[in-house]
Amino acid sequence: MLETAERGASSSTKAPPHERYLEAFRWMLTARVLEEKLASLYRGGMIVGGVYLGRGQEAISAACGMFLDKSKGDLFAPLIRDQAGRSAFGEPLLDVVRTYLGSAKGPMRGRDGNIHRGRPREGQLAMISHLGAMISVLVGRLMAKRMRGEKGFVGLTTIGEGGMQTGATHEGMNIAAVEQVPLVVVATNNHYAYSTPNDREFACAALVDRAKAYGYEGATVDGTDLAACLDVIGGAVKRARAGRPPQLVVAEILRLAGHGEHDDASYVAPEIKKESFAQDALQRAEKLILDEGLLGREGLQQMRAQIAAEVDAAVATAQQEDAPHASEEDWSALSTRELADQFA
Ligand SMILES: Cc1ncc(C[n+]2csc(CCOP(=O)(O)OP(=O)(O)O)c2C)c(N)n1
């Protein structure tokens, strides 16, 4: 097992190139601005169903999306707090807002209202809500690619510390190591699974210790530190691609939102908000960008304004599009009538 990567140690000794900071920051800010808009639309009653935000988790998520490469056949199986990673992996803003606003032109054709969207043929798997399910789905996809003779690809999926406690997660993690597929699992401990705190979720000293038990290589990272996230997650992707065992990265943060926008998170203990892992990753990344001289305050403002304009344009487009028409729709469980008929 690899040495646990201490916060700062990896980032200061082996800093990624500067342009990756700026690129990552843009994905983080894109996610934050987009999600602020989604929250606002939700509060205005314009989104039916849940809105789940990744506030505070953007550095980890952006790093996940950035190191995957569609041209190499990489697969990404994101969860609900992965907007930054989805964007970094190439998800257009229109895919997001079309889904939330129920447009029939969205990737799910108006059949899903939030985060179960994906484009599996392009490497982004559509999320299954049942926690842990995506790990074995991804392992299956990786095995299928290997059986077809493909090479050089990796798969990355994310999981929360709550999701890590399900049976499905255990089965998926285990079989990935048995089959030695090129898998990276990025687990984020944001200290609450809905309202359940860590001490009611697991009793082991550190979740990363499970890496050894499963036959993975493991590392930890401060999820509020963008430089460290790029270093540690980038390194895990590289090792998986190089044929090393599956990789488990455990990141620490505090969830800076409710479970969803319907939840005011009033159960979050005041003391925990003073912990260093409770810092806002976006604010820290902004400081990094300023300190490194990559952008000044004006440049940051311009970037935010540009992203906000792109988000607003996507919302304006999606708002004018039709929802699915009940009279024309064919609500078969499988995605097309042709597919459904094969099983009839
Ligand atoms: C097997 C299963 N049990 C329960 C749920 C309901 N549920 C959805 S999200 C969630 C909390 C997940 O917590 P965690 O994995 O820590 O991720 P976080 O929401 O904190 O990012 C629960 C209990 C579910 N989706 N699947």
How would you characterize this protein structure?
The structure is a single chain. The chain is α/β, with parallel strands linked by helices and 344 residues long. The N and C termini lie far apart (49 Å). Helix 2 (18-43) packs across helix 3 (58-66), helix 5 crosses helix 11 and helix 6 packs parallel to helix 7 (167-179). Helix 7 (167-179) links the parallel strand 2 and strand 3. The chain is 42% helix and 9% strand. The chain has one domain: Rossmann fold (3-Layer(aba) Sandwich). The strands form two sheets. It has a five-stranded parallel beta sheet with strand order 1-2-3-7-6, with helices on both faces. A two-stranded antiparallel ribbon has the order 4-5. Bound molecules: thiamine diphosphate (TPP). Residues 81, 129-131, 160-163, 166, 190, 192-194, 255, 259 line the site of thiamine diphosphate.
What are the SSEs and their pairings?
Elements: H1 9-13, H2 18-43, H3 58-66, E1 75-77, H4 83-88, H5 93-100, H6 133-147, E2 155-160, H7 167-179, E3 183-189, E4 192-193, E5 196-197, H8 209-214, E6 217-222, H9 226-241, E7 247-252, H10 281-291, H11 297-319, H12 337-342
Helix pairs in contact: 2-3, 2-10, 2-11, 3-9, 5-11, 6-7
The site of thiamine diphosphate has 15 residues, from strand 4.
* Sheet with most strands: 5 strands, parallel
Q: What helical percentage do the residues reach?
A: 40-55%
Alpha carbon gyration radius? 20 Å
* Overall outline: globular
Specify the CATH homologous superfamily. Answer: Thiamin diphosphate (ThDP)-binding fold, Pyr/PP domains
Tally the helices: what do you get? 12
Give the strand tally: 7
Give the percentage of residues in beta strands: 5-15%
What is the distance, rounded to the nearest whole angstrom, between the alpha carbons of the first and last residues? 49 Å
CATH topology: Rossmann fold
Name the strands of the widest sheet in spatial order. 1-2-3-7-6
